[in-house]
Amino acid sequence: MFKNWIYPAYARFSKPRRTQKRRGTDRGRLIQTGAVLTAILGLNTDASLIYQLFAFLFCLTLISRIGLKFHHPKISLTRNLPSYATVGEIFEYQISLTNIGNKLESDLQIRDNPLVVPPSREQFKSQKEPFEDSRNVYDRFIGFHRFIYLQRINTGIVTDQSNVPDISRHATIDTTIKAIPKRRGIVRFTSTTVLHPDPLNLNQGITQIDNPESLMILPKRYKVPSSFNLSGGRHFQPGGINAAWSIGESDEFVSLRDYRDGDSMKKIHWASTAKRNKPVVKEYQDEYFVRQALVLDTSSENTDTLEEAISLAASFTLTLNKPDSVLDLIYLSDKQEILTSGRGTDSVNKQLEALATLSRSNLGLDQLIDATLTHARLVSAYILVLSDWTKEHKRLLQCLNSAKIPIITFIITHDKSKFLNEDIDAHIMEIGEIQESLNAL
């Protein structure tokens, strides 16, 4: 009840204040605190001379603030982001600053500003921060730490403030920004803040430069042992390599041969026909090669298990992606999805981008079973990653086993002890110990 009442106040508090023009340095805050104390202690000017110290500190503060009004840095900047970043991994990128004024700019600092996304009311009420139960009763009751944690996760990235070297007039320099992604998906930047000090270094002026841009954050990934491998050999692929991306039947070109009755006119190689003065056709054949499928369950309502399932799937996506094979990623979003990477197909980056933006699916597991079994005739082996374990998941596993295709199953859970009495051929991966479980494969 209290969290529902206090939520609007937290939401208003979290909005960035674009009208802010300055902020105090450590030295400036010390001067301002001293001015307040001496003002209180020096109320009786007949009893002491401390009011003179107040007058001095007040003049310093006033001169500092007036000084900010006479100088605003004339700076243009460009952000140089990488193509991708990964959850939990610190990375660096460059911001190029150009001095478009006619004098040296020195002692500048910059901070990059991502779009601040406060939690929704429902998220604030239902989702806890990690280790929240270890906080005292008061902190758990008011929920402020929870709100700040959820806002940081929703915002998606935390950036450090960086000092800028002196920039001579009309010069350009690069400044390095360190950042750490907090969640997968698309992170949006809105602006860059340039801080410039007054002559006394008591206050810093704030200049906001609009600089919108976005960055794709890939899921966290685990290290899969090099010894891990799927059984199942080469498999018949109607249409050969091109079947992974073309529509309809298409074969692999092999050679040229003489025309035979019944050959399609579409297969005639006209250049060779003209040279030999008789019909010559192109000969094709279907091809056998290794094609594996990674089936990801996105039905779990638990955020932690769903995130870990996606991270585990991303780890296998990179491990199984080889130039001499094909990997199909099968999952449900708002519809059945099959993304293919490997020889003659799209890059594995397409699969990682899809996993980065994936959310829980409301479609039933029947559709995942249908998509998986329909694809079974092309597949050499399966990896199945489950984010929950219900009767529907048991049926999914039974259906895949009935296809007589080699399969390795991974189940993400908060408590593996509840599977002690379960007779299932699967690897139980407990949250917090997933890397250790992978090492033991």
Question: Please, how many helices?
Answer: 12
Helix content: 25-40%
CATH topology of the largest domain: Immunoglobulin-like
Q: What is the residue-mean pLDDT, rounded to a whole number? A: 84
Largest sheet: 7 strands, mixed
Report a brief summary of the structure.
By secondary structure, this protein is an alpha/beta fold. The protein has 12 helices and 19 strands. Strands 11, 14, 15, 16, 17, 18 and 19 form a 7-stranded mixed sheet that branches. Strands 1, 3, 5, 7, 9 and 10 form a 6-stranded mixed sheet that branches. It has a 4-stranded antiparallel sheet with strand order 2-4-8-6.
Task: Annotate the secondary structure layout.
Blueprint: H1 2-14, E1 22-24, H2 26-41, H3 50-68, E2 75-80, E3 84-86, E4 91-99, E5 108-114, H4 121-126, H5 137-142, H6 144-155, E6 157-159, E7 162-164, E8 172-181, E9 185-197, E10 203-218, E11 235-237, E12 252-258, H7 270-276, E13 280-285, E14 287-296, H8 303-320, E15 325-332, E16 336-342, H9 348-356, H10 365-374, E17 381-386, H11 391-402, E18 407-413, E19 427-430, H12 434-439
Parallel strand pairs: 3-10, 14-15, 14-17, 17-18, 18-19
Antiparallel strand pairs: 1-10, 2-4, 4-8, 5-7, 5-9, 6-8, 9-10, 11-14, 12-13, 15-16
Helix pairs in contact: 2-3, 8-9, 10-11
